[in-house]
Input
Amino acid sequence: MSQSATLGAGCFWCVEAVFLQLRGVQRVESGYAGGAMENPSYQAICTGGTGHAEVIRIDFDPELVSYETLLEVFWHSHDPTTLNRQGADRGTQYRSVIFYHDEPQRATAEASKAAADTSALWPDPIVTEMAPLPAYFPAEAYHQDYYTLNPAQGYCSVVIPPKLKKLRERFPHLLV
Output
């Protein structure tokens, strides 16, 4: 039986590209969550005024990859110590966030965050927001599978390959 996870770690193009590489991940969809506007557009999100974060919804087979493992990859795939920023991307829409789907996910996410925060992974405290999943809205069709379809696009060609290289080096046992 498939489960879902909803994570935000900056630009959803980058996060989607990372999680699509993992064995047991069945689907990754870019979207928006955490704001007040119903059915927001990318243009509205980019203003930072809607309160939404760019997120991905991951459908995964827990027999092949656990939620805890997804979170481990999450902590390594972005800088969870920077508030409302990932690299050059700035604004609340780029915040680090875990939207948990149920109580077991909340408990797992809190334990995972505590372990990552006390490890030597990051020199500064983790500021990742954790909240129950509010309304989730899929991003526009042109955002889906963006890196695969647009690898030569400037942002993609500069920002995503180092993230994928780090994933291959740190988690080769998890890759498809």
Notes: The helical segments are 12-19, 42-46, 67-77, 103-118, 146-149, 154-170.
